[in-house]
């Protein structure tokens, strides 16, 4: 009781964690979907995607040097080296393709088509891992895919080339996720270290082959791409460490707002009507599916 005879309202720690998690995730989106994406689009006009990815990987490598030293012996005893290598190759292709797509397409379009990755991942999980998917999720996936088709729409040769590149990013990104799921027995930290080292090594050769001399004033933005990516990863991990994934997953779709704002204010990109419509269809389908599954799971727990 306080001095006025009223009971104090104590904040629920779980609610505090949820708000903090959402805050960390929004910060991640601001750093990556906003800041890093803008720099990639601006610098991608001048420098090859492999060069950008390599610089990003090297920044990440510098950040995890202590982890590399600490787990140096464990890295030599990785249980599934070839599967890990395949996962890294898929990630390298996905990341490079995404950087290329960012320079070819409006940011809102790249992000919207990128939302199809969970759908492709789901289909691959069923085909390769034998996972079961509810009919509600399949229905949502079909509706979301229809939204992707609306976003893609007809266009010129350059537009179609850009769409093809972002679809390559989606497919290989999904393959990387599938490999990650299949590597559940591996140590998570070792996998992260293996990934960062491998990404730098794999992208080194094409980066050197396509390397363009960097103007002194461009080193700042190029290094910032790597820094923002690492900071975003930290925020992302913090978010999912303190808040439930079921709460954060729908929030992740707000990234479309960040990239659309960046495209509009910095690059004069005004989303076409069909793109806005397609994005709306995708978001509604994904959010509805998540809501239905959450309700069904809650009802099962009460029984």
Automatic annotation (TrEMBL):
Protein origin, superkingdom: Bacteria
Does this entry carry the keyword Transmembrane helix? yes
For this protein, the record's Gene3D superfamilies field holds: 1.10.3730.20
Q: Which UniProt keywords apply?
A: Membrane, Transmembrane, Transmembrane helix
Mark the transmembrane ranges.
21-40, 46-68, 88-106, 112-129, 136-153, 159-178, 190-209, 221-240, 247-267, 273-296
- Principal localization? membrane
Ranges for domain EamA: 26-152, 162-286
Q: Give the way it sits in the membrane.
A: Multi-pass membrane protein
Q: Which InterPro entries match?
A: EamA_dom, EmrE-like
Q: Where in the cell is it found?
A: Membrane
An example of a Gene Ontology cellular component annotation for this protein is: membrane
Task: Write out the similarity annotation.
Answer: Belongs to the drug/metabolite transporter (DMT) superfamily. 10 TMS drug/metabolite exporter (DME) (TC 2.A.7.3) family.
Task: Quote the PANTHER family the UniProt record gives.
Answer: ACYL-MALONYL CONDENSING ENZYME-RELATED, SOLUTE CARRIER FAMILY 35 MEMBER G1
Which protein are we looking at? Pseudopaline exporter CntI
Provenance organism: Rhizobium rhizogenes (Agrobacterium rhizogenes)
């Amino acid at each position: 009781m306080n001095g006025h005879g009223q009971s104090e309202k104590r904040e629920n720690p779980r609610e505090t964690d949820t708000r903090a998690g959402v805050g960390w995730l929004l910060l991640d989106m601001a750093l990556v979907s906003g800041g890093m994406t803008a720099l990639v689009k601006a610098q991608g006009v001048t420098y090859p995607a492999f060069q950008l990815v390599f610089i990003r990987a090297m920044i990440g490598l510098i950040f995890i040097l202590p982890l590399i030293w600490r787990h140096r012996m464990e890295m030599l005893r990785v249980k599934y080296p070839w599967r890990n290598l395949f996962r890294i190759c898929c990630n390298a292709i996905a990341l490079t393709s995404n950087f290329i797509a960012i320079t070819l397409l409006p940011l809102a379009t790249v992000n919207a088509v990128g939302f199809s990755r969970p759908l492709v991942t789901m289909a691959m999980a069923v085909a390769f891992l034998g996972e079961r998917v509810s009919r509600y999720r399949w229905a949502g996936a079909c509706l979301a895919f229809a939204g992707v088709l609306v976003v893609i729409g007809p266009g010129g040769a350059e537009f179609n080339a850009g769409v093809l590149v972002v679809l390559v990013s989606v497919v290989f990104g999904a393959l990387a996720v599938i490999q990650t799921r299949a590597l559940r027995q591996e140590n998570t930290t070792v996998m992260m270290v293996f990934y960062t080292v491998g990404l730098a090594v794999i992208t080194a050769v094409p980066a050197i082959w396509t390397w363009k001399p960097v103007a002194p004033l461009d080193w700042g933005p190029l290094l910032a791409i790597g820094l923002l990516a690492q900071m975003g990863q930290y925020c992302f991990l913090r978010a999912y460490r303190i808040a439930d994934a079921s709460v954060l997953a729908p929030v992740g779709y707000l990234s479309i707002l960040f990239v659309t704002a960046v495209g509009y204010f910095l690059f004069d990109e005004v989303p076409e009507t069909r793109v806005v419509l397609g994005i709306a269809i995708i978001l509604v389908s994904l959010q509805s599916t998540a809501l239905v599954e959450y309700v069904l799971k809650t009802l099962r727990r009460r029984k």
